[in-house]
């Protein structure tokens, strides 16, 4: 079984190719004196784009380090300096990568020099990681708070694009809007760059257009069986453009992805010649091994038709109307709630499981998973069998491939096909 | 019965009723100003299989045990307040809200945040205003400025008395063991402030024989809401002369400004003056621990970090450096279980 998945879609390989080119250009820009931000996935990247500050998404870079099998070494480098290597690895690997002691081994030539680190403190570790960037690398950081509401909105995915003020909550939006104003001032001081408010409006519109294409693609895939593609293809096709959210390239990439899927559907193309089962992958991608998905396709005709990456692009990002900074706040003040908060996340996964007509669910439970009990219970209550896998998505050190294959095989044989 | 014995008894068996709460960030002053009794909950008892499944192994064990006790209906409280002290307490809130069982007490999440910014200050003040309305509804009586000012004075009085109690431990011959001090301090979170203050005054007036100290330790890292670890550490003749966690002497920190608008004073105190406020500011906490450990004449600092509270490990390099600068040894115990391993396992000798 190969550690790398096999991509079939042109939009997927094109996105990967673009990412390589973009990163090479980024290295040149930074070498020429441009600043570079490393930003967590749930920080409003759109603001950086509107300030023309190049950025790398912390968790995307961790996934590259992991796919290149360098993550264990980077965690070891952090441990040598006294930091924990056993918690929030996904958010810490990038810092470890800047301590690389063998430049020849650095994925893609390594991260260029980092100017600033941006995070949202939605777990206890995030501030500690940010402070470690400052201590170890001399990189200043800016942290956004993560507020918590007492209420849970009903069917947020239907309301949040338009009614985001009520769904996210005024207190949290007031807070993040004010924080974003501070962030702009902080970045202006640090980099000398200025926020272009007209550009921000355009970026938000492009981001919405991009997610609208993702929504159409998600809906089309949900309605189509046999599945024309699996998540090895859909993850890069949706996530690489996601990290370029707010650009014309990203909007066009999302449209190309949709058009390619439409073509596959029109041709009756299927990723598996003999689709027997439709599976859903709940949780983060297992970045160090994207090959096993296809193993189960061959063995059981089991196709992983769903990952959260396309689905959250479809349901989680759209925000219409309102002042730009407030609408942007509405995209991120509750983002981790959507996919991880009990009451928010579990009914959404059930909705997606039903619309995609999945036969079973593999649920990757990482230590940071906040709603795993409720998600599993809700899916099982809906009559959908769930296999929970305890693993860290970016840290392969304790991954037992043979045990996982055996466990999933038994699950398919005894619960999904039963 | 001495004051110390009374406080220990209250710690072991708190009164029933009132507003149970989880986290040092619950402003007790507000609860008392509403005419209610705040009772901080401890995660004692045995592990509950359902609670363990719901919260998972990465939530701090005391929090999991509180959920277990709530699910079993063992906590005789009328209402429940939960604070944003840590990710574990947020997860407890998320789970309870999702469970929404009829037999659980009505709950409210008090979302006080800590970044040292005006934006966070404004947010916290808004959240406190919401809490005032909730407490007034629960108690059936309004929270007045006068009742708030009285509650602030009493709470500050508790903090000043706790600071005096800390001095007993810092004496060249400690007058209280860490275990006794932890129970006495903890009891003040389970009693009305006026009652705590009377008992603390009595305790401070009583004479206390010196506690022989083979070595003097200062404890940081995770909080301890049971006496287990302290007893284990002190069983070999060591004495814990101070700690910075929020079940210990850190509760003495941060007076609320009695001249300020009362709600604004409470907001400021909990945002920047509470034990939680510096919990995750690694450099500030390291300096604080080093300074306090030196003041307590500690030979060794023990950083005890439980699984489920692991993020504190990100502060260890800063702590090690701060202690090295003062010539104080650090023993870091990471990924600890819920139990109290013996002092021998800490390699203190």
How would you portray this structure in words?
The complex is a heterodimer of chains A (418) and B (349). Chain A has 418 residues and is of the alpha/beta class. Chain A has 19 helices and eight strands. In chain A, 55% of the residues lie in helices and 9% in strands. Chain A is globular. Chain B folds into two domains: 3-134, Rossmann fold; 146-346, Rossmann fold (3-Layer(aba) Sandwich), CATH 3.40.50.11900. In chain B, the strands form two sheets. A four-stranded parallel beta sheet of chain B has the order 2-1-3-4, sandwiched between helices. In chain B, strands 6-5-7-8 form a four-stranded parallel beta sheet, sandwiched between helices. The longest helix of chain B is centred in the middle third of the chain and has 26 residues, at 145-170.
Q: What would the keywords be for this entry?
A:
heterodimer, A: 418 residues, alpha/beta, Rossmann fold, four-stranded parallel sheet, 19 helices, globular, disordered N terminus, B: 349 residues, 2 domains, 13 helices, 8 strands
Q: Could you please say which CATH topology of the largest domain in chain B applies here?
A: Rossmann fold
Low-pLDDT residue intervals, each spanning 5 or more residues of chain B? none
Major sheet attributes of chain A? 4 strands, parallel
Radius of gyration of chain A in whole Å, from Cα? Answer: 21 Å
Mean pLDDT of chain B: 94
Distance between the termini of chain B: 36 Å
By secondary-structure content and strand pairing, the structural class of chain A works out as alpha/beta
- Alpha carbon gyration radius of chain B: 19 Å
Low-pLDDT residue spans of chain A: 1-5
Q: Bin the helical content of chain A.
A: 55-70%
Q: Estimate the strand proportion of chain A.
A: 5-15%
How large a portion of the residues of chain B is in β-strands, by DSSP E? 5-15%
């Amino acid at each position: 079984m190969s550690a790398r998945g096999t991509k079939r879609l042109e939009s997927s390989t094109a996105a990967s190719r673009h990412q390589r080119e973009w990163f090479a250009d980024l290295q040149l820009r930074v070498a020429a004196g441009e600043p570079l931000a490393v930003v967590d996935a749930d920080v409003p990247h759109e603001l950086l784009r509107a300030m023309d500050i190049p950025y790398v998404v912390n968790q995307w870079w961790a996934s590259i380090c992991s796919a290149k099998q360098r993550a264990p070494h980077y965690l070891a480098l952090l441990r040598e300096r006294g930091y924990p290597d056993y918690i929030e690895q996904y958010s810490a690997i990038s810092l470890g990568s800047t301590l690389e002691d063998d430049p020849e081994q650095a994925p893609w030539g390594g991260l260029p020099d980092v100017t600033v680190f941006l995070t949202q403190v939605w777990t206890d570790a995030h501030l500690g990681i940010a402070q470690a960037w400052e201590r170890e690398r001399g990189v200043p950081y800016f942290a956004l708070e993560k507020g918590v509401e007492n209420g849970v909105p009903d069917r947020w995915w239907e309301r949040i694009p338009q009614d985001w003020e009520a769904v996210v909550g005024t207190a949290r939006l007031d807070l993040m809007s004010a924080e974003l104003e501070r962030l702009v001032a902080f970045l202006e001081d640090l980099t000398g760059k200025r926020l272009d408010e007209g550009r921000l409006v355009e970026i938000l519109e492009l981001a919405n257009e991009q997610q609208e294409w993702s929504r159409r693609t998600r809906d089309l895939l949900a309605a189509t069986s046999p599945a024309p593609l699996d998540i090895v293809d859909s993850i890069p096709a949706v996530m690489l453009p996601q990290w370029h959210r707010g650009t014309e390239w990203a909007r066009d990439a999302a449209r190309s992805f949709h058009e390619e899927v439409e073509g596959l559907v029109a041709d009756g193309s299927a990723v598996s010649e003999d689709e027997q089962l439709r599976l859903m992958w709940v949780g983060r991608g297992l970045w160090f091994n994207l090959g096993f998905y296809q193993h189960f396709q061959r063995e059981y005709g089991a196709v992983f038709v769903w990952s959260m990456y396309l689905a959250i692009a479809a349901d989680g990002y759209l925000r219409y109307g309102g002042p730009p900074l407030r609408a942007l706040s509405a995209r991120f003040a509750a983002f981790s709630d959507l996919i991880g908060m009990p009451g928010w996340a579990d009914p959404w996964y059930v909705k997606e499981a039903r619309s995609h007509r999945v036969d079973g669910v593999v649920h990757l439970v990482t230590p940071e998973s906040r709603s795993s009990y409720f998600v599993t219970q809700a899916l099982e209550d809906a009559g959908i069998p769930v296999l929970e896998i305890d693993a860290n998505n970016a840290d392969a050190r304790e991954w037992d491939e043979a045990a996982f294959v055996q466990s999933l095989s038994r699950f398919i044989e005894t619960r999904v096909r039963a | 019965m001495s004051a110390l014995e009374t406080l220990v008894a209250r710690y072991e068996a708190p009164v029933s009723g009132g507003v149970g709460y989880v986290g040092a960030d619950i402003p007790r002053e507000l609860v008392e100003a509403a005419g209610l009794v705040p009772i901080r909950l401890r995660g004692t008892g045995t592990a509950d299989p359902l609670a363990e499944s719901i919260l998972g192994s990465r939530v701090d064990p005391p929090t999991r045990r509180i959920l277990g006790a709530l699910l079993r209906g063992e906590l005789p409280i009328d209402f429940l307040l939960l604070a944003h002290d840590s990710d574990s307490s947020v997860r407890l809130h998320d789970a309870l809200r999702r469970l929404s069982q009829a037999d659980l007490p009505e709950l409210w999440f008090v979302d006080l945040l800590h970044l040292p910014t005006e934006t966070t200050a404004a947010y916290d003040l808004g959240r406190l205003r919401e809490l005032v309305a909730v407490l007034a509804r629960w108690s059936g009586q309004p929270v007045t400025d006068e009742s708030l000012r009285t509650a602030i004075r009493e709470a500050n009085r508790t903090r000043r008395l706790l600071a005096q109690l800390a001095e007993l431990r810092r004496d060249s011959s400690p007058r209280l063991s860490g275990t006794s001090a932890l129970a006495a301090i903890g009891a003040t979170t389970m009693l009305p402030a006026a009652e705590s203050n009377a008992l603390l005054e009595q305790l401070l007036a009583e004479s206390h024989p010196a506690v022989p100290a083979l070595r003097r330790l200062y404890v940081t890292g995770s909080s301890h809401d049971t006496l287990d670890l302290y007893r284990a550490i002190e069983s070999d003749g060591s004495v814990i002369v101070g700690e910075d966690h929020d079940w210990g002497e850190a509760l003495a920190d941060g007076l609320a400004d009695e001249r300020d608008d009362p709600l604004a004073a409470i907001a400021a105190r909990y945002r920047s003056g509470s034990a939680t406020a510096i919990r995750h500011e690694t450099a500030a906490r390291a300096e604080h621990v080093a300074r306090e450990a030196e003041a307590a004449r500690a030979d060794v600092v023990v950083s005890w970090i439980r699984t489920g509270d692991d993020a504190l490990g990100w502060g260890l390099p800063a702590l090690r450096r701060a202690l090295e600068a003062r010539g104080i040894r650090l023993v870091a115990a990471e990924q600890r279980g819920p139990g109290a391993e013996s002092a021998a396992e800490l390699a203190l000798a």
